Amino acid sequence: MDLRCQSCDKSFTPQVLGEPQECPYCRMRIGRLAQLEQCLRQWYYPRRWRVDIQQPSVNFLIEKLWTAGGQGERLYQAISPRYTNYDIFRNMVTRQIARGIEEGWVKLTFPEDPLVEDPVYKLDFGDPERFASEVERLFPEVDWSAPVEVPVESAEQAPEQVPARKRKR
After folding, report:
1. Average pLDDT of the chain to the nearest whole number
2. Which tens digit of pLDDT belongs to each residue from 122-144?
3. CA-to-CA distance for 42 and 30, rounded, in angstroms?
4. Could you give the CA distance from residue 147 to residue 136 in angstroms, rounded to a whole number?
5. What residue segments make up the domains of the chain, in order of their start?
6. Mean pLDDT of 142-158
7. Please, which residues have CB within 8 angstroms of residue 31's CB and are 6 or more apart in sequence?
8. For residue range 29-53, what is the model confidence (pLDDT) as tens digits?
9. Burial of 162 (0-12, 13-18, 19+ CB in 10 A)
10. Which of 11, 32, 107, 168 lies deepest, with the highest CB count within 10 Å?
């Protein structure tokens, strides 16, 4: 997989995909999110004629990673920001995580071959305290000294279980 420099428009093979790179031609820095964007674009290009596949964006992928298994909803319910609905909450936290990926306090693991049919990216919050403090800054109206209440049903479920959805009658 080659990367293309945004400055000089020349292609080069990265040393390690997912780590900040320096263009060997013009010395421009290519960050993690720019690399992810290029991977997603190259993955999508040969599939663009398939109606069932949407072109993924960087923030869409990051959001899907951190909200998987109901984690986003559980975090939202646990802190219950007073003036923010879930959609805005998800967007704000996704942008914060994207900043964390770029700065290195959230690790995004790239697949060995990002162009396979179903590439698997992974997020690792190596510094959970930093993540917590960044979320605290996003929602100053929340009383962070109060105990966080977790719904009993969520606390009893294993993390990999997804709660069943209720059916409308």
Report:
1. 81
2. 999 888 889 988 998 998 887 76
3. 16
4. 14
5. 3-146
6. 58
7. 20, 102
8. 999 899 898 888 888 776 667 666 6
9. exposed
10. 32
Report d(CA 30, CA 3) in Å as an integer. Answer: 9
Q: Which two tokens stand for residue 137?
A: 């800054």
Looking up tokens 């923030």 gives 59
Count the alpha carbons within 13 Å of 43 in the hemisphere toward its beta carbon. Answer: 24
Angle formed at CA 62 by CA 165 and CA 100, multiple of 5 degrees:
130
Q: What is the pLDDT of residue 159?
A: 44
Residue recorded with tokens 């930093």: 130
Phi and psi at residue 75, to the nearest 5°: -65, -45
Structure tokens belonging to residue 49: 């004629």
Tell how many helices (H) and how many strands (E) occur in the chain.
6, 6
